[in-house]
Amino acid sequence: IRPFNDIQELLSDTLAATYSEDEQCFLLQLSVLDSFTEEQAAFVTGREDAALRLRRLYEHNAFLQLSALNGVYSLHALLRSHLLRVLEENPLAVCPGLDMKLLYRRAGECSLSVGNYLPALRFFARAGTDTDLLYILQKFEETGGGFFMRSDPETVRATVESIPWEIRYLAPVGYLGFLHRYAVRVNRAEAGRLLAEAEKRFLEHAAFSEEDKRV
Fold first, then answer.
1. Alpha-helical runs (H) found in 90-214
2. Which tens digit of pLDDT belongs to each residue from 102-135?
């Protein structure tokens, strides 16, 4: 087993040897998504020829995987982990001129369109789009039905902490609804702590309307 840094260097060398610079940029953008259709790839990357690019890449190597059942692509776990690391540390070295806020906003819209509210919340928080964060929190005010929240507690906690309090104050019922789903489906103890903190801050900030208090 090679040391972690050596594996990263090996992946970087393999990426450079396997793909052109433009293809590396394309794959870097796609790495934000767990999986994607050709249409989603085109939307997130902003490339009209995304479908053709995916088919060519799929034909020539095993780093791109395709489910024949639903036409959904995914990056090999090793390649994706490397690309996500690059995306965090130095994306412009691979993809000069990449607009990170736009990339995360598009990824958020893509997740939102298929009902993946937790990833959408995380992407919009990273994009810094307060309007969309507020919209998603307001969706959690709906009592009929629910949004399936399956994720590790650390991911959900980090997502919660990425939401500015100014946005939480604007949608207190939605934020509490989010935390209640978190409590039921992810981590009851941590959610309880967050709920107590939120209720205290909302009352101090007078965030609840009279109608909200009755709810």
1. 91-94, 100-113, 117-127, 130-139, 153-161, 165-170, 172-185, 188-205, 210-214
2. 999 999 999 988 888 878 888 998 888 888 888 8
